[in-house]
Write a structure and sequence with these properties.
Elements lengths: L1 H35 L9 H15 L3 H7 L1 H8 L5 H25 L3 H9 L4 H35 L6 H11 L4 H32 L1
Length: 214
């Protein structure tokens, strides 16, 4: 049992943090784009903002289990299979990107306009404003958003086990539910709770350290 749990935990960590990495790398630029193209911002483009906003809202409105099943053909095209922990990374990432992008957008939108105006007054380019003002000032909120996203990815990864995604969810379903081994279900629940708590504690610690430096 211990061997099964360790292997499943390893798969879950691999799925969550790999998907989290790609989510951050794609979702943060998307969140910045959504924020700076708002009406009244220094790169205002309501048309572009509306297009991306509509796409993100549509993606967020689909339940994850349905989203994952719908993406099986794309997953097979990208990684060559629709099952396993590697395959689960594709829908996990695509489901988390819109969620994190909205959180990043909100964090960036809370940066005082006075800082942006001050940067513009000294001749800072839009790129300099984004990298030297917006992101550094919004960093605590961005990290907090990433923490929340990772917690959601833990839940998503567990659901992925329902259709062969691997990890703790798959172990709980196949060896716990189908094989009527309650100890597997209990152990999986305990591990998932501990994992979420550790992610949240680490995220809060990093946010606190970032606020102190600011």
């Amino acid at each position: 049992m211990l061997h099964d749990l360790l292997n499943a935990l390893q798969e879950t960590l691999f799925m969550v943090f790999t998907a989290g990495f790609f989510t951050f790398m794609i979702g943060l630029p998307l969140g910045v784009l959504l924020s700076v193209t708002r009406k009244g911002q220094f790169l205002a483009n309501p048309f572009l903002n509306k297009i991306f906003g509509t796409f993100i809202n549509a993606a967020r409105s689909i339940p994850y289990i349905v989203f994952m099943v719908a993406l099986i053909p794309l997953t097979r095209l990208i990684v060559g299979t629709g099952e396993g922990s590697i395959a689960a990374i594709v829908p996990l990432t695509l489901a988390a990107i819109p969620f994190f992008a909205r959180l990043a957008e909100t964090a960036i939108a809370e940066v005082p306009k006075g800082l942006i105006e001050a940067a513009q007054s000294v001749g800072a380019s839009p790129k300099q404003i984004i990298y030297k003002v917006l992101i550094p000032e919004a960093l605590p909120g961005i990290i907090n958003g990433l923490t929340v996203t990772l917690v959601h990815l833990v839940g998503y990864s567990a659901m992925a086990g329902a259709i062969g995604g691997g990890g703790l969810g798959s172990l709980a379903i196949h060896k716990g539910y189908h094989a009527f081994q309650t100890n597997y279900i209990v152990a999986t629940v305990v591990i998932l709770i501990c994992l979420v708590q550790m992610i949240q504690i680490c995220g809060d610690y990093i946010v606190h350290g970032t606020l102190k430096r600011q």
